[in-house]
């Protein structure tokens, strides 16, 4: 499948699959979208809950559905370093990007953290299926497999659901996939996604999630956050 690097509205790069007319990130701003959906309404939401709880572990475990360009993981690493909260990050990706595609992405430059460029590159170069502590507060574990093959139970505090859209891959937005996500989360865990379609929301609710609509990133009216409530 033909892929090319394009520049989004905030100056950050992403990858486009030409025959689908689908991008790894929003054309309205790759970094803006990732920060809004996954960092603001996912990670920082979890940070706030952790800080207000009596949990002394100060650790958050994250599952990313679609490791892709590594942007969400890189932004999360930066937040872990800033807040000094330990993060275990599992990135699942069936079709990894190439080293040439990785080299064409400009996230450290656009984020003005050029000194972290080697860390961004290392995220892509480390082997699959091992835990690798990249900085004091961030451990990455990449898995190359289909999302339907995830078998974790009660493992994660937060899921970044960043699969390709339902327009091109409807099989990734089904009840069966969201049941896997529900099972992978700890009680009280949350899932955030850029999507807001009614069919997606209903699929989440049907497996037990409580779902809320939140304001979307630039170019999108709404997004969803789903919670696995304690039973």
List the helices and strands and how they pair.
Layout: E1 3-7, E2 13-17, E3 22-23, H1 30-51, E4 59-65, H2 71-83, E5 86-92, H3 99-104, H4 107-110, H5 117-125, E6 131-135, E7 138-143, E8 156-161, H6 175-184, E9 185-193, H7 198-206, E10 210-215, E11 222-227
Parallel strand pairs: 4-5, 4-8, 5-7, 8-9
Antiparallel strand pairs: 1-2, 2-3, 6-7, 9-11, 10-11
Helix pairs in contact: 1-2
What does this structure look like?
The chain has 231 residues and is an alpha/beta fold. It has a single domain (30-227), classed as Vaccinia Virus protein VP39 (Rossmann fold), CATH 3.40.50. The chain contains seven helices and eleven strands. The chain has helices at 30-51, 71-83, 99-104, 107-110, 117-125, 175-184, 198-206, and strands at residues 3-7, 13-17, 22-23, 59-65, 86-92, 131-135, 138-143, 156-161, 185-193, 210-215, 222-227. The strands form two sheets. It has an eight-stranded mixed β-sheet. A hairpin with a 5-residue loop joins strand 1 (3-7) and strand 2. Helix 1 (30-51) runs parallel beside helix 2 (71-83). The radius of gyration is 16 Å and the shape is globular.
**Distance N to C terminus:** 44 Å
CATH superfamily placement: Vaccinia Virus protein VP39
The CATH topology name reads Rossmann fold
Count, helices:
7
The helix content, as a percent range, equals 25-40%
Count of discrete structural domains? 1
**How big is the Rg?**
16 Å
Instruction: State the order of secondary-structure elements, H for helix, E for strand.
Output: EEEHEHEHHHEEEHEHEE
Unreliable spans = none
* Largest sheet composition: 8 strands, mixed
């Amino acid at each position: 499948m033909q892929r090319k690097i394009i520049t989004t509205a905030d100056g950050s790069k992403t990858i486009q699959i030409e025959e689908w007319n689908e991008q790894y990130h929003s054309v309205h701003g790759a970094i803006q979208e990732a920060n809004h959906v996954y960092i603001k309404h996912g990670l920082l939401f979890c940070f706030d809950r952790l800080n207000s709880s009596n949990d002394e572990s100060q650790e958050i475990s994250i599952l990313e559905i679609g490791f892709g360009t590594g942007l969400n993981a890189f932004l999360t690493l930066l937040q872990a370093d800033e807040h000094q909260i330990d993060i275990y990050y599992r990135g699942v990706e069936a079709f990894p990007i190439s080293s040439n595609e990785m080299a064409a992405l400009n996230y450290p430059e656009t984020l003005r953290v050029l000194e972290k460029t080697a860390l961004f590159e290392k995220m892509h170069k480390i082997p699959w299926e091992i835990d690798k502590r990249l900085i004091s507060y961030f451990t990455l574990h990449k898995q190359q497999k289909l999302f339907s093959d995830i078998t974790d139970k009660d493992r994660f505090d937060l899921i970044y659901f960043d699969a390709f859209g339902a327009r091109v891959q409807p099989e990734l937005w089904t009840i069966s996939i969201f049941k896997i996500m529900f099972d992978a989360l700890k009680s009280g865990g949350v899932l955030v996604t850029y999507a807001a379609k009614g069919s997606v929301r209903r699929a989440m609710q049907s497996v037990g999630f409580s779902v809320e609509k939140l304001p979307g990133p630039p170019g999108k009216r709404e997004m969803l956050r789903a919670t696995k409530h304690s039973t």
